[in-house]
Amino acid sequence: MVTQAVATNGTAAEEPRKALNYAFSSYATTIFEVMSKLAAEHKSVNLGQGFPDDEGPESMKQIASKALYEQSNQYPSLLGVPELRQAVARHSEAEQGLPCDWARETLVTVGATEGIAAALMGLINAGDEVRLSSY
Fold first, then answer.
1. Are 28 and 36 in contact (CB under 8 A)?
2. Which candidate, 2, 30, 45, 107, has a CA 20 to 30 Å from the CA of 66?
């Protein structure tokens, strides 16, 4: 990593700087970034991460737009917006036959990685043996 500094002759010079976080600074990028670049380079379908097939139904875009103007933009509770969690619980029972208590058994995350991390952190204790495969 480098930062720009001014040399004694008044020109810009490159000066090394230390990494901000030693634990993560050795990672150049994520597997998702690698797969996206490879898919673009080879003009192939990217199976490394999910991408929407289209922009979604117009009705959902209108609902989302309306919510931005008419509802609070405050951060949600740690578990997610109650209305969304209620909808998840209804969907679970209606579509999969799995009833659940939205208030105690639902959690909304911003993506699969966060969901997996939250599940593991909630179930694993120090000293537990855990075996994971790459997802």
1. no
2. 107
